[in-house]
Design a protein that fits this description.
The complex is a heterodimer of chains A (151) and B (175). Chain A has 151 residues and is an alpha+beta fold. Helices cover 42% and strands 14% of the residues of chain A. In chain B, the strands form 2 sheets. In chain B, strands 1-2 form a two-stranded antiparallel ribbon. A two-stranded antiparallel sheet of chain B has the order 3-4. Chain B is globular. The chains are: A alpha+beta (151), B mainly alpha (175). At the A-B interface, strand 4, helix 5 and helix 6 of A face strand 4 of B.
């Protein structure tokens, strides 16, 4: 039994300490907003926040998240920056198939918290680990700038 | 005759002294100039694989060697390998400090960086200089990197011995 702090709630989970956090979120807790993409930290679809920093849940063992603040896409809209990002995403109709977008929004929110008005270079260096097979990158970039403009 | 022989031997010793001393760094270089070490002793971005290609995903040094503001090394690299070894991991995965970059340096350049307190984190004795290579989990990972990655050309015990000899001799560098 492990105790995890997810989106402000303390939850007991059965998973072993070396189980990837993504398995806990999706299979045990049925929080399926966070997506499984590659399972090797190569695509960014499973991006969540631990203590505010984006991490890939597919390679993060439960033991590395214990005692820390875990945030997922399900709760990101409850934060001021996350809400701005969601609104910008909706206004610009960013998603196409949508599969990578949970991870994109988590990465973008973390970026805007660290750098409220990022340059294109800042965006490249924060977002290049989040792959979009539909190629929505121009809209993602525009939406990040739009969300920054609302700050 | 004896005296002449002694002088001759002495002269040979002096003549060979410098290159022999510098050669003490050769076994050290044979380890530290492999991709497992050099890939993270880079200037602006880490490298990957035995070919030393630039790290995918536009990973950069950032302000403190731990990645950009919102893409830290620890976003993917855990305290140990994950994904069946495909994602390498060791505690505090990060780039070497900028002053300790080896990008573009030859054997002599790497040696001179290591023993220069202005560039080596103010380590002013041989023992302090070799400590990182003896004990840092990031370094030890190189001998057990998983996923069929290349390992250094000698055991870690032999590496420590080579480091100790080099340090005892006053950290001589190749000419």
């Amino acid at each position: 039994m492990n105790t995890l702090l997810i989106n402000g709630k303390t939850l007991n989970v059965q998973a072993e300490p070396d189980t990837p956090l993504l398995w806990v979120l999706r299979d045990e807790l049925r929080m399926t907003g966070t997506k499984f993409g590659c399972g090797m930290a190569l695509c960014g679809a499973c991006t969540i926040h631990i203590d505010g920093q984006p991490v890939r849940a597919c390679v993060t063992p439960v033991s590395a998240a214990t005692g820390k603040k875990i945030s997922t896409i399900e709760a990101i809209g409850a934060t001021p920056v996350g809400k701005r990002v969601q609104l910008a995403w909706a206004e610009l109709d960013v998603p196409q198939c949508g599969y990578c977008q949970s991870g994109q929004i988590m990465a973008a929110t973390a970026l805007l918290r660290e750098i409220p008005h990022p340059t294109d270079r800042d965006i490249d260096q924060a977002m290049s680990g989040n792959i979009c097979r539909c190629g929505t990158y121009p809209r993602i970039r525009a939406a990040i700038h739009k969300a920054a403009g609302k700050a | 005759m004896k005296r002449a022989l002694a002088l001759l031997l002495c002269a040979v010793g002096v003549a060979q002294g410098a290159p022999q001393a510098g050669a003490l760094f050769d076994p050290v270089a044979s380890v530290v100039m492999t991709p497992r070490c050099v890939n993270c002793h880079q200037a602006e971005a880490p490298r990957q694989k035995d070919k030393g290609v630039l790290h995918a995903q536009q990973v950069v040094r950032g302000s403190d060697g731990h990645g950009s503001a919102a893409l830290h090394c620890a976003a993917c690299h855990q305290a140990s390998n994950t994904a069946q070894g495909k994602v390498p991991g060791a505690p505090n995965w990060h780039l070497a400090p900028l002053s300790m970059r080896w990008q573009g340096l030859d054997k002599k350049g790497v040696c001179q960086q290591m023993r220069d307190p202005a560039r080596n984190g103010n380590r002013d004795t041989g023992e302090k200089v070799i400590e990182h290579m003896k004990t840092d989990p990031l370094v030890l990972w190189a001998w057990n990197p998983g996923a069929n990655r290349t390992t250094p050309p000698m055991t870690h015990d032999d590496f420590i011995e080579a480091l100790a000899q080099w340090a005892r001799a006053g950290m001589p560098c190749p000419e």
